[in-house]
Write a structure and sequence with these properties.
Layout lengths: L1 H16 L5 H8 L8 H24 L1 H21 L3 H29 L4 H30 L5 H4 L1 H15 L12 H24 L7 H20 L13 H30 L5 H7 L1 H20 L2 H19 L8 H26 L9 H27 L3 H7 L4 H30 L13 H12 L1
Helix pairs in contact: 1-5, 1-6, 3-4, 3-5, 3-9, 3-16, 4-5, 4-8, 5-16, 6-12, 6-13, 6-15, 9-10, 9-16, 11-14, 11-15, 11-16, 11-18, 13-15, 14-15, 14-18, 16-18
Length: 475
């Protein structure tokens, strides 16, 4: 059961990063402008993040296994159409639909895991595997993206999802028991307001790349986005059954872990997006070399996640998280200092190894902190919240980094008058800015982690309690 759930979640995280190495090929194949290129990533992350809490409510009401199957089917269909797309707009739309399907998969899978494994050592170990795979998927995505892009072509980064989704839909009834959470009415206005607010903010940040923050085209959007979010809060507070019961944020560890996750994933996604462009457009790597460059990082992330999952069951999770975030910050700092002629062995590799270790040490304690103290009836909501923080953090962090780093890039490149050395120098400077933004995001997560209590693994429940939990889950 754990293996099946991890495979489903692996697909969700994989599609955040698998497109990164293929970005130059997608840009060339569909004639996507440099300023619109982040939409390939943010369209997926924004819809996924904005709809995750709605997905968690649907899972609690209609059944977690049923919604998981629906989400997998929708994800596979959107992948098929996206791989066949001939226009950039259609690809952006398909990425959004993929995000909606993933918004059904992620909370259904995580809430199934949390109600299956009793709080304590068993759940911590399961979440350790889960969190570790999330980190590995982020790196594995760029490895597979390079192999597929250089091999059969960039469209196969989408086609590869189709057979996996079909097999998972067919196997789900044989592996997963059906389970439900607390049935509550749906808050469609809340979902529309929060998703609309986030999409408008992402769009405004993208427009600011070309037109500037104070432009008459961007300023109204930047004002409207927080207005919609305030309207969402007002609507939620007046509803008897809101999309997000704000009472859940009284759990200190959940609140702080979600806030830290937003900044952490912003730094992670920014690194993958801009590092892939840096290696191909500045260092001259081809897609396969770019993808394979991440392999040591993936291995380091897996090793570190395994160590972290053991440490958090024996000692406090807070110091493990702080070490992880410090390592991530150090990796991004090293990336921001790379020269345009940097070698892989002495320049890129040390930064990747340090960052990979940091990811492994960070994902696991954040997942555990976001679930501690949450009742089983709200497991779906808590799962939706931590996944929302991950996806929205990645989308917003990338949008902010792109807005700052890519501002007026076409004009800067035009001023270089086609001189390859000058263009390379300009791009190096631009990507250094992006890595610095990611570094600052990780430091913000580190500051928030200081607010966490010294989280320790709860004692393993007695056998009879475990039996009761299992029976309740199956029922």
């Amino acid at each position: 059961m754990l293996a099946f759930l991890c495979v489903a979640q692996f697909m969700v995280f994989l599609d955040v990063s698998i497109v990164n190495v293929a970005l130059p090929s997608i840009q060339h194949g569909l004639k996507v402008s440099q300023s619109d290129l982040p939409y390939v990533v943010t369209a997926y992350g924004t819809i996924l993040g904005g709809c995750l809490v709605l997905g968690s409510r649907l899972a609690d009401t209609f059944g977690r296994r049923r919604l998981l199957q629906i989400g997998l089917g929708l994800f596979g269909l959107a992948s098929l159409v996206g791989g066949c797309s001939q226009e950039a707009v259609l690809l952006f739309v398909c990425r959004g639909v993929q995000g909606f399907g993933a918004a059904m998969i992620a909370p259904a899978a995580l809430s199934t895991l949390t109600v299956t494994f009793a709080e304590g050592e068993a759940r911590n170990k399961a979440l350790g595997v889960w969190g570790g795979l999330a980190g590995i998927a982020s790196v594995a995505g760029v490895v597979f993206g390079g192999l597929l892009t250089q091999g059969p072509g960039w469209r196969w980064i989408f086609f590869i999802n189709v057979p996996i989704a079909v097999v998972a839909v067919l196997l789900a009834p044989r592996i997963l028991p059906e389970s439900q959470g607390e049935r509550r009415p749906f808050d469609i206005p809340g979902a529309v307001l929060v998703t609309g607010s986030l999409m408008l903010l992402i769009y405004a940040l993208d427009e600011a790349i070309s037109y500037g923050w104070g432009s008459a085209r961007v300023l109204p959007e930047l004002i409207a986005a927080p207005v919609l979010f305030i309207a969402f809060i007002v609507v939620e507070r007046r509803k008897r059954d809101p999309l997000v019961p704000f009472s859940i944020f009284r759990v200190n560890t959940l609140r702080t872990a979600n806030m830290a996750t937003v900044f952490f994933l912003g730094g992670v996604v920014s690194l993958f997006f801009f590092a892939s462009l840096f290696m191909q457009q500045v260092l001259g790597y081809d897609p396969i070399k770019t993808g394979m460059a991440y392999v040591p990082q993936a291995l380091m992330a897996g090793v570190a996640a395994g160590i972290a999952s053991q440490l958090v069951t024996k000692t406090a999770a807070k110091p493990v998280l702080m070490v992880g975030l410090l390592l991530c910050a150090a990796g991004l700092f090293l990336m921001s200092r790379l020269h345009s002629d940097a070698s892989y062995a002495s320049g890129v590799l040390p930064a990747y190894l340090i960052f990979g270790a940091g990811m492994g040490f960070s994902f696991v304690p954040l997942q555990i902190a976001a679930q501690i103290g949450v009742e089983d009836r709200q497991a779906g909501l808590a799962a939706g919240l931590i996944n929302t923080s991950q996806e929205l953090g990645g989308a917003l962090g990338l949008a902010v980094a792109a807005t700052i780093a890519l501002h007026r890039l076409p004009q800067k490149v035009a001023a270089d008058r086609g001189d390859p050395a000058r263009v390379q120098h300009t791009l190096t400077h631009v990507y250094h800015h992006a890595f610095t933004v990611g570094y600052c995001l990780i430091l913000a997560a580190l500051v928030l982690s200081l607010m966490l209590p010294m989280l320790k693994a709860a004692p393993q429940p007695q056998q009879e309690n475990s039996d009761e939990t299992e029976g309740a889950t199956v029922g």
